[in-house]
Structure formats: structure tokens, C-alpha cells
Amino acid sequence: MFGLQIKFLSFFLALISILSFFNIIYSYYLNLYLNLDTYYFSLAVSGFLAVVFYKIKISNNKLSIYNKILTVFLGYIILPLIISIPFYFSIYDLTFLNSFFEAISGFTSTGFTIFENIKHIDQSLILWRSSIQWIGGLYFLISIVYLIDIYDDSFKKTLTNYISFNSSEILKQTIKIFFLYSGLTLIIFITLNILSIRSFDSLNLAFTLIASGGFLPVNDLSNILRENFQIVIFSILMLTSFF
pTM of the predicted model, to two decimals? Predict the structure, then answer.
């Protein structure tokens, strides 16, 4: 039983590894070395756990809904713990509690932050703040499929023709959601670039919008959206994740 739970979380640990690697490349590209080591830490820890969790054998027994609920709940604890690593080991001397709070806030797309002035944060860490929202939004969507057994039949029919998912079907639906979610993120990013918003801000806002998050790459959104047309299109893009 425990094996399938762990394998579900390994997918998101792998995503954290990929985003950690992306932040390393981004830091080297823009010569942002202040917090570079922190992403090596998160890459190593998340990558190691992803491989270990994936290698654990899957039980042939069908998981109970209670085990699935526990799996999702543990994900909301374990994944933010890994995500908090770059905050905790950053140059900003954050306590473990503040680092974990920032990670939870981003992962749940709540948007509360312990940073008073975003301008004082390294660009790579701003990008990390935004990307954890992206992972959190994806985790929420895939968890809906994973927990489909808790819904009544009428709601199941709005999601799928299947009454229940085995591990193979969960994987298929996860892949579909991942590509749709990533595709919409890319569309939002391109749209924001067309609106003459610089690429760094567009990428951060795309991560935020698709996850319905609250983190911003600046202190005030008006510093980015300066024209009425930009505000109108941005408002429409805010509805994308709900659609």
C-alpha cells in the first residue's frame, strides 16, 4: 500500500528537481551567484527522494480512499519542506519557520509572504517563489484525479467516464493534465510578452496566473501593467485557470 503513495509523490519531487535545475541555469546565465548553492541543495534532495520513492515497489492491493487522502495530505507537508530549502539557505537569514511559511503560502497559492520589499530579493529567488505556485496548482489538479473515489457518481461523470482509476489510468490522466497545464502556462507567457511586458515578469506572472496564486515579482502590479489594454488582457488571463 505504502508503495503507491510514495510513487505518486515522486512525480512532483521530480518536478521540483527540474525547476531547481532551471534556476541554476538561470542564475548562471544572469550571473546571479548569491543564492546559487541553495538550488543545488534542493536539486540534490528532491532528485534523490524522487528516485527512491519511484523505486519502491507498488503493492498489488487496491488502496483505500483513506490512504489516498493521507498521501495527498503528506504531499502538502513533504513537498513544501523541500521547496523551503532555497529560502532557508538563502542570504536573507530566514528562520526555518519563515521559510516553511513562504513555501506553504506559495504551494497553496495563498500569496502571503514574509518579504516586505520584493525589490531586495534576488531575481532567482523571485522566480523560485513563482515556480512553487506553479507546482502547487498542478498538485491540486492531479490530486483531484487521484482522489476521484471520494466523489459521488454525478461529479465523477463530469471528470471522466471511469468510475475508478487504477495506477495506470491515474498516470494517463496526469500526463494529460500536465501538458494542458504547461500549454496554458506557455500561452499566458507568450501573451504577456506580446503586451510588451519584459520576459522575466511575464514568466513569473504566468506561473502565478495559471495557479491562481498571489505572489508577484514586484511590490505593486501597477509597476508592470501601465496601460489600460494591458490591464484588460491581464484580467482576462486571470480567468484562465478557472476555465
Answer: 0.86
Integer Cα distance of 69 and 74 in angstroms: 9
% residues pLDDT > 90 (the chain): 55
Instruction: Report the alpha-carbon distance of residue 88 to residue 85 in Å, rounded.
Output: 5
Model confidence at 3: pLDDT above 50: no
pLDDT tens, residue by residue, 155-200: 555 555 554 555 666 778 888 889 999 999 999 999 999 999 999 9
Q: Quick one: residue 96, left, alpha or beta (phi over 0 = left, psi -120 to 50 = alpha)?
A: alpha
Q: Measure the CA–CA gap between 146 and 174, rounded to whole angstroms.
A: 9
Contact 130, 165 (CB under 8 A): no
